[in-house]
Amino acid sequence: MRLANLAGRLVLVDGDRALDVERSSGGTFSSDPQSVFERWDEFCAWAQAAHVADGERFDPRRLGSPVPSPRQLFAVGLNYRDHVDEVGLAHDVPVVFTKYVSSIAGPYEDIPHPGGEVDWEVELVAVIGRGGHGIREEDAWSHVAGLTIGQDISERITQHVGVTPQFSLGKSFPKFAPMGPVLVTPDELANPDDVALETVVNGETVQSSRTSLMTSSVSRLIVQLSSITTLLPGDAIFTGTPSGVGLGMVPPRYLNVGDELVTRIEGVGELRNRIVAGQAVA
């Protein structure tokens, strides 16, 4: 099953066709893409009988983030060994922070450049369908509604200013969390623990890896997070990035106004965002 946010309305997607959920369900389910996670099991039962191929053709440019307003947005740093090595930050366990919800953007939106050193980070995003606290590893995937693509855009000067790094602030400028283009349920993938992901800047592949190389897998991250905090339906988890970020290049390389940033994950699709002029960092 593939879900999407089409101009603010929840749809099921099959190829180039989209079925409007509210209209097709006779109002049983809301048009709000975020609200579906609160009734995830009930929705899945209904969706199994839906005829998505009967939907209307749609323009992908009208797609927004399939998770537009999660109550909690977790982000994980240093979750690929090669990325740990390239940035020189020795750490035995992934670092957890947040990207503020106001930074969420759609898969084709422009990203304003705030000045400074703006970097890219392709990430698999896991979205929670069934919430919980103290989730066991063998049950973790049953709590996942689906997977989508995320770009953890980062302004490195803000991120590293001061004695204590400001990860959340440096990664939460407007549109710094594009997601999409769809939310794919895990059963759609041959192995949801092993999918290819890449970042392409102006036609050049700068990141290329597989999620099987994560230090903590999706299920393990759910265990780690839920051992402390309660995961809520609709929460999004950015699961970390592999090597190839601009900060790790010699010399470092960053995004400029006019650059095209393409982010792909196998079985999910791609984001295509252009960097545009924005308000300068204070």
Question: What can you see in these coordinates?
Answer:
Strand 18 (260-265) and strand 19 (269-277) form a beta hairpin. Helices cover 13% and strands 32% of the residues. It is α+β, with helices and mostly antiparallel strands. The strands form three sheets. Strands 1, 2, 3, 4, 5, 6, 7, 8, 11, 12, 14 and 17 form a twelve-stranded mixed sheet that branches. A five-stranded mixed sheet has the order 9-19-18-15-16, with no helix packed on it. Strands 10-13 form a two-stranded antiparallel sheet. It has two domains: 2-64, no CATH class; 73-277, Fumarylacetoacetase-like, C-terminal domain (Fumarylacetoacetate hydrolase, domain 2), CATH 3.90.850.10. The chain is built from six helices and 19 strands. The longest helix is centred in the C-terminal third of the chain and has 9 residues, at 218-226.
Query: How many structural domains?
Result: 2
Task: Tell me the total number of β-strands.
Answer: 19
Shape: globular
Q: How would a crystallographer describe the biggest sheet?
A: 12 strands, mixed
The helix/strand class is: alpha+beta
Q: Report the sheet-strand fraction.
A: 25-35%
Percent of residues in helices: 10-25%
CATH architecture of the largest domain: Alpha-Beta Complex
**Poorly predicted runs of 5 or more residues:** none
Q: Please tell me how large the radius of gyration is.
A: 18 Å
User: What top-tier CATH class of the largest domain fits best?
Assistant: Alpha Beta
Can you tell me the CATH topology of the largest domain? Fumarylacetoacetate hydrolase, domain 2
Continuous helix count: 6
Provide the succession of SSEs.
Answer: EEEHHEEEHEEEEEEEHHEEEHEEE
**Assembly type of the shown chains?**
single chain
The CATH H-level homologous superfamily of the largest domain: Fumarylacetoacetase-like, C-terminal domain
